Amino acid sequence: MTLTANTVLSPADFLTHWQGHRALTRRVIEAFPEEQLFTFTPAPPMRPFGEMAVELYFVGEMTLTGLSTGQWPEPDWASGPRDKATLLGAWDTLTQRLEAELPGVQAEVFSRVHHLPWGAMPGWVAAIYAVDNEIHHRGQGYVYLRALGIEPPTFYER
Amino acid sequence: MTLTANTVLSPADFLTHWQGHRALTRRVIEAFPEEQLFTFTPAPPMRPFGEMAVELYFVGEMTLTGLSTGQWPEPDWASGPRDKATLLGAWDTLTQRLEAELPGVQAEVFSRVHHLPWGAMPGWVAAIYAVDNEIHHRGQGYVYLRALGIEPPTFYER
């Protein structure tokens, strides 16, 4: 008997999906000039891209912690990196943690209900939201880069 | 014996995920003034949001066709809607088709390799890409709206 899993995205695929997006976001962070990353906005009251990237870093870390432990403590948003090198360093540390720790998360965790700072939801919704929120803000970063006259990284490369 | 599917996202979850994003994108299209939708760009050479939304419509239609039939004919990109009402009408028709037709796609289709105009890839990569591309361009639309002085729809509402 062959069982075909009733799945679009397996946990292993999800790790590939997330890390691919995180690699692209890293290239977008890198593409910003240091002096613009935490200051430039083309459309106030929108935040500078650096602030968005810090949010993405914290949401990623919280999501890994939440899926691994079931605990979702709200990050101390104001405690994040304030320069490009520190941000990229934190980003890379989380990349390594995801690679090491996410494969240990059991599939049932994704169907279980989790309690996030912004509400209760199934694990898959929380997990996919972290990636979606990253794509959303990174897309905004593309416009910021274009407004600065900089060509963004290719979207379809991961 | 209880079998836990090794899944983050089931086909039914994927339909919910996609339709939720499409509902939000529809609100973003609606938020643009008619006279700006196909003309305004805050950062040339970026396209007006209306052109991006037409791309999203075509990619969505192609993805439904591809997952349903295994055939992925490239859309005739230039044949798309050129005004807001026609675009929203096409959008809504596709929403109804997704609701009716996507549940008929067997789970194994998502693991099978498909041949898209831009390369060969597993069905789940093609499917998730359609949604990711929509989130990416819609995020850009948020900056366009802010540059026009318009508050975009809430991102986390689907």
UniProtKB/TrEMBL annotation, chains A, B:
InterPro entries: DinB, DinB/YfiT-like. SUPFAM superfamilies: DinB/YfiT-like putative metalloenzymes. Keywords: Metal-binding. Belongs to the DinB family. This is DinB family protein.
